Amino acid sequence: MRHMMVCLLCLLLTACGSADHGDLSAFAPAEEDRMVIYTSHPESVYGPLVKEFEERTGVWVQVETGGTTELLERIEAERDAPLCDLLFGGGADSLTARRELFAPYTSPLLEAVDPAYCCGDGSWTPFSVFPVVLVYNPVLVRMNPPEGWESLLNPVWRGRIAFASPTVSGCSYTALAVMTQVLPGEDTLEAFYRNLDGRILPGINSVVDEVANAVAEGSCTIGVTAESAALEAIRAGRDLVIVYPEEGTSAAADGMAVVSGCAHEENARRFIDFAIGADAQSYMQGACMRRPVRTDLLQVGEEGLVLMDYDLDRAAAERETILERWRTLEDAA
Asked: Does pTM top 0.90 for this prediction?
């Protein structure tokens, strides 16, 4: 399910009621002043940033949304005639796994970014840092809350775990990659899938976090999501408690990448420069509860956060294998 952001052209047509609506050429921007963004971010993240970018640059931005995995598949399908200029969002593991889809770019502002979050070949640029966390509903879970990744395999939570499909959600893929790295045994993925008992969220809603919603509303009691989504839900007054897994979790970056062969590469590069600038990063940290990648901004500190030694290269290399195993489980269900 995709949402097309209301474009500047539509607003102009509404404002100019006396204009000839059949002649759009009077309002359409020049080709060099356009850009198409595919994003997995919620509107609360991309909306204000896109609006500010448009106002600063005069570039007309068209936005289409979806899950990271879904958008990567779209970009692959459109490879011979790209419709997207910039992929905005997606975990470092997913972007690294599909780096052949992107045109390398090294922003002149990258010197302000923590090198720990950067990729070596410039195929993507970090935007924010998102630990994957567990959440639970304190009204429904009064005793023995989940403590870590191993809790997700406990039969007591069978059918009560909120988890978005990793075939759509990049965050969910990262969660699976973390689980397979921190939990022993080759059947961790299968054991977790069985414990979901068929309750898998579609992962296609970019307006609200489906996992946080499901747990806060009580249709599930615990869940797996990004820290920022959980913090935003808590700030909005939802019944949620964050659990930082005791075994540790990843704190990889999500990123942005210029699509190879796109029509508006220069504008895509300009958006990357804007998004890692101090203004955009400060906004994202304060309003969106996301950890910035710039070294001159304070990180959001949370007690109990334990970072594992997340093997990004392994997560990228195993991505297709893990997703194929997941699809096989779904087909067999």
From this structure: no
